[in-house]
Write a structure and sequence with these properties.
By secondary structure, the protein is mostly helical. The protein contains 12 helices and no strands.
């Protein structure tokens, strides 16, 4: 990624809460430069800087996820427990929560196939949860031995993923749901059986994508 692209991605992040993870948000980034351009970026320029079609949106989603993990570390207080660390990460979703189902749908769909053949690939979402758990374990247990840290990371990934998927449809109860999983870690696997809830969110988002493309009416 070029220096220009990285700079404009940073300027786009505050625009997500009003414009979503969209090419429009990326195009408006140049209006926030120290010396703003007179007009938003053209669609051709957005493609050149960030990728064609929905790939540009995926670039923005990944940038936002990376920034959220960075802020986990920078904003962490001393001696934060695992619950507080993960709740803080869930809270960072709140300003853009309405856009996250569609964002996860884009991450879990292939950029190489037409929308009518959208396959589910959960690996980007799982990778996201693992990266959050890496950061959370480092913050909450920075002095832990390496072996116990890796053992803890697996369960934390499952717990965070379950809590975040729960947050998509029930934001107010997500913190309590997270607490229940942390208190009964063995239930995390059962909670992940609620992937039907996630699939429902994904399908609703995909229907929106398909409608906007004219595939569904």
């Amino acid at each position: 990624m070029t220096t220009t692209s990285a700079k404009l991605l940073t300027l786009t992040l505050p625009l997500i809460k009003t414009h979503g993870f969209t090419r429009e948000a990326l195009s408006l980034s140049v209006l926030s430069l120290p010396t703003p351009l007179a007009h938003p970026l053209s669609d051709v320029s957005v493609t050149a800087l960030f990728g064609p079609g929905d790939d540009a949106r995926r670039t923005l989603i990944h940038a936002w996820l990376n920034d959220s993990r960075r802020r986990m570390k920078e904003e962490a207080a001393e001696r934060m427990g695992m619950g507080d660390v993960l709740k803080a990460r869930l809270k960072s979703n709140e300003p853009v929560l309405e856009y996250l189902p569609e964002a996860f749908a884009l991450l879990a769909s292939s950029s190489s196939l037409p929308l009518t053949l959208l396959p589910v690939d959960p690996s980007p979402i799982i990778k996201h949860a693992v990266e959050v758990s890496n950061q959370a374990c480092w913050i909450a247990h920075s002095d832990a031995r390496e072996l116990s840290w890796y053992t803890r990371r697996a369960s934390v990934s499952a717990i965070y993923l379950a809590a975040e998927l729960h947050q998509l449809t029930s934001p107010k109860t997500a913190p309590a749901f997270l607490d229940s999983l942390l208190e009964n870690a063995e239930h995390a696997g059962k909670a992940l059986d609620e992937t039907a809830l996630f699939a429902s969110c994904i399908w609703k988002s995909w229907r929106g994508i398909l409608r906007s493309s004219g595939v569904l009416v």
